[in-house]
Amino acid sequence: MEAAQRLADQLIYLCTLGVVAAITLLITFPGLRHASSAMLATACLFAGVCVGLLMRFSRILSFSPTIAGRNRNAVGRFGVVAQAVLFLAGLGALSKAAWSPQQAERASVKSAWHTTARGITEGISGLALVEHTARHTILLAAHDNKAPGEKRLSLLTWRPPDSWEARLLAWPGENPPIDLEAIAHVSDRPGEFILFASSGEACVITLAAERDAITVQARFAVPNAGPTRQFEGFDLQKLGSSVVACWGDRGDSEAPTQLFWAMFDSATRAFGKVESANWRVPWPVEHQRHVSDLRILNTGTLLITASSDPGDDGPFAGAIYIAGTLNRVGERTTFSADPAPTRIFATTDHKIEAIAFVPGPTGGIFLGADNENRGGAVHSGLRSE
């Protein structure tokens, strides 16, 4: 029995250390992706400590001579086994909690991220869904170039499990848009897309049925456009019977982003009353762009990508957040911001600047990155299947 008692005491010690480690992990990383695992680890390990202490000090579960030898041995063995099970369960949950989003992203970077092309003119600054089937997903990609002759649009085709093909779409005629930062699909007009530049100027295009050419239909601007603006995201979504537009500037480490939204008429390109709200991300914490792209789901949920941009050579970082919800209230659209934005993805190696949502059981989230001198990259790993 002395050996069993020593083992029980050692398990008390190990479980106590585990509890301290789990609590430290939760305090140090408040946005921990696997916070539930850390809490489960804390509960299991704390239970292990409690069982050990009961065995040590209670006359009912102790190795007390007052309990007959056979029963005492049985109770002792049961207590040690219970401690061991709780310790192993807690250790497993703790190891899962310690596997941070950054570590998981590094482990899957080779399969999930694909470099489309290298060079500073190849970065991807916007994505929009063109077509999705079980066999492929086709995306329209924007490039934030400024000089004449530099690419503005590409067509990206993804085939499972992880095959990508990129094809340049030539800009028709002169006056290509400058510094494209987002693409929005016009939901009630098949084949029509809005290209959005950092100044707030927009260009309406249609993609040919053969998907080998585009036609410029119209140009317009958001109500608060201007040459000094730094808009980064734009999207449209039909909520109820009306189309809502949402756009935002990038913000920085000193100032939050401003999100703007208004009713939008797809036929006349006219905006309703513009409303706004400040918003900022908790991470990345340096060289912040609180908004690098955004996407409105058909439920009104607003997904926002944020990034860290220290310069053309990085190091970069990016994340996706559930920012809140756009709601139709009578004739108005309101925004309910999440007081604690949920981070659903993070990378410490890519500057996320584009997001596309693909609905359906085989859909998911596709990401684009503008890694400046390292070129462009796409991510296909956030899928529902």
The amount of beta strand, in percent, is 35-45%
Give the radius of gyration.
27 Å
Largest sheet properties = 5 strands, antiparallel
CATH superfamily of the largest domain: Glycosyl hydrolase domain, family 43
Give me the number of helical elements: 4
Short description:
The protein has 385 residues and is an alpha+beta fold. It has helices at residues 2-28, 35-57, 69-98, 101-112; strands at 113-117, 126-132, 137-142, 153-159, 163-169, 180-185, 192-197, 201-207, 214-221, 231-239, 242-249, 257-265, 270-271, 275-279, 288-296, 301-308, 317-329, 332-347, 352-358, 364-370, 376-383. It folds into two domains: 2-99; 103-383, 5 Propeller (Tachylectin-2, Chain A), CATH 2.115.10.
Commentary on this structure:
The protein folds into two domains: 2-99; 103-383, Glycosyl hydrolase domain, family 43 (Tachylectin-2, Chain A). 24% of the residues lie in helices and 42% in strands. The chain has four helices and 21 strands. The strands form five sheets. Strands 10, 11, 12, 13 and 14 form a five-stranded antiparallel beta sheet that branches. It has a four-stranded antiparallel beta sheet with strand order 1-21-20-19. A hairpin with a 6-residue loop joins β6 and β7 (192-197). It is elongated, with a radius of gyration of 27 Å. The two termini are 52 Å apart.
